[in-house]
Design a protein that fits this description.
binds magnesium ion; eleven-stranded mixed sheet; alpha/beta; binds threonylcarbamoyladenylate; three-stranded parallel sheet; DHBP synthase
Amino acid sequence: MKVDLNQARAALLNGEVVGIPTETVYGLGGWIESAQGIQKIFSTKERPFFDPLIVHVDTIKKAQELTTQWTKIHEVLAQACWPGPLTLIAKKAPHIDSYITSGLDSVGIRIPNHPLTLQLLSVISGGVAAPSANKFKKTSPTSFEHVEDEFSGEVKVLDGGPSDIGIESTVAGVEDGKVLIYRPGFYTAGKLKEILSQHGLNVEVGYAESPVAPGQLKHHYMPKIPLIIISPEMQWEEIQTKIELQFNKKFTNPALWIQPTNPLSASRELYQSMRSFVDLGHDIILCVRNKEFHEEDWKGIWNRLDKAKTLGLI
Ligand code: TXA
Ligand code: MG
């Protein structure tokens, strides 16, 4: 249900969860100083406790207060990319509820780039922990309506319009003086490296599976109907029988998602398209593996699609 800023603040301080708009996807927020609010995030999402949450703040000063090890690398990236779609992992301060970090000694932090949420965060001490506002493993929401749908109107939500970026933030940590990206997104390794070197830091930036956060599950972001990846030359008529045999089910209304040629438009449309195919009554989504899929700018999008798919390239 739609709430205004004052109602959202009051609810958070009262230990309730609130859907908050961000430039990436909508978050399901809980106040970090309320144990009840944090618990409610997990119960509302049906999320297992081993998947750590990202803490949202509105200033770098508040971010620093959440950690005991804010390095020069953190500072440079925060100054250059925040508010924006980058989550930085840093050693956690002792006062942070270990449910937020799944018992890890590090915490994920970001300043989201959305005026309404920045305003909300500015009138709340500490910060707001918020995973994407969807049921565990399901497609992330990129509009107020998606969050309403996801929780059947039972969760309070701030309506901030459609999310601009459309996929979750890049998650990056610092290990042994190197930057490692655990979840690809808008900020690529190339871009982070460039930012760091512009500030005189010659640092390696690479991609890695997080050794500590098994939040990076194999299946995630899944729409309510099967999603399969096909190569550009494939026709539905040619593969239909094979797919139906595999699923042991007939499909009568396939949807074809052809990505926009620009990765920014593709990420903005990704989750919105997946949800609207379901709403339009399609029973399977075919997604064409574009030829640029291995390029860095597409990495975030294909990371999500590869986890959302029911079947790989056939
Ligand atoms: O764009 C976003 O990041 C959105 C919006 C709402 O800000 N949030 C989001 O949260 O995507 P969520 O819960 O869906 O993803 C959080 C992920 C975890 O699954 C994990 O991969 C990573 O962030 N993460 C969080 N804390 C971490 C930590 N201490 N170490 C390593 N990875 C961490
Ligand atoms: Mg999520």
